[in-house]
Amino acid sequence: MANRILIIGGTGTIGKSLLEALSDTDHEITALARTEDKAVPLQEQGIQTHIGSLGDWDTIEPLLDQIDTIFLLTSPSPEQVALQNGLIDRAKAHDVRKIVKVSAVGAAAGAPIHLGDWHGQIEDHLKASGMEYVILQPHSFMQNVFMSLPTIKEQGAIYQSLGAAKIPMVDTRDVAQACARCLVSDDFNNETFVITGAEAIGYAEVASSLSESSGKNIQYVAITPEAHNQAMKEAGVPDWLADDLTMMSSYWSQKEEHPPSGDLEKITGSRPYTVRDFARDYGDQFK
Ligand SMILES: NC(=O)c1ccc[n+]([C@@H]2O[C@H](COP(=O)([O-])OP(=O)(O)OC[C@H]3O[C@@H](n4cnc5c(N)ncnc54)[C@H](OP(=O)(O)O)[C@@H]3O)[C@@H](O)[C@H]2O)c1
After folding, report:
1. What is d(CA 262, CA 271) in angstroms, rounded to the nearest whole number?
2. 188 lines ligand 1 (CB under 6 A)
3. How many domains does the chain contain in total?
4. What would the pLDDT profile of 181-235 be if each residue is shown by its tens digit?
5. Is residue 224, in this structure, part of any structural domain at all?
6. What residues make up the domain containing 36?
């Protein structure tokens, strides 16, 4: 039976690839857009849209009676627990059957990193709701390297505080494929998956892959957590997020190599993008 699926976060990085992945499905897809401006490009791709915003509940509740399954993703923010738990409560009240939530690796209520704690609180709330769910906990996105675009362009440098540690970074296009599969299939219901790439990589490999594909000499410069934290704050990253990201890097840098989980391949049945694939596809933007 065709599902009526609501995509929340469809205008973001994962969401755009997710809508593309769902474009040939028989299911009825509606993408939430917060403004008319954001809805137009989706409508031009033939995607049905609904204008609304989590927190502005009058714009959401009338839609929920027509929805079976929800994809739930919002921006990292101190409001995310109130927004996502508010949505979960309303979805339950309107008999929505299932929610697929994007969380983050290491999520657990009470975790010292805000994002881990907030995602953990939402995961607990979703599990306790009685609705069917799938929780996807991605590792660090390869696409985060776009945050280093200014220093790559100006100095050919990626400044990070990960030391020589290797982590199984994942391409957001693969995260989207896993989300799509979990939305249209019930094979993964009521489980939590850690979504990683197929190999542990360090920023030295990211830099060398981007150098090769862009033809520009790009180096990884390992800096101290304090310098990384200060640089992010000076670049306008909110204090709480800069502190979270520094804490994450410090945590990961304590171990030489963090292994992949294999969960992505289990869900999608295909080989994840490697950092060479990522560099091949996006290299031009780093020149
Ligand atoms: N970066 C990483 O390495 C990493 C790793 C693991 C997990 N994660 C998690 O991945 C998620 C971010 O994914 P992403 O990069 O694809 O997100 P993104 O590009 O920042 O997009 C966020 C989406 O949420 C929408 N949104 C925000 N507030 C909303 C509201 N009140 N109502 C409705 N929609 C709202 C945004 O709409 P607008 O377009 O209108 O703003 C946008 O579509 C976060 O939960 C983060 O913790 C990230």
Report:
1. 10
2. no
3. 2
4. 999 999 999 999 999 999 999 999 999 999 999 999 999 999 999 999 999 999 9
5. yes
6. 4-138
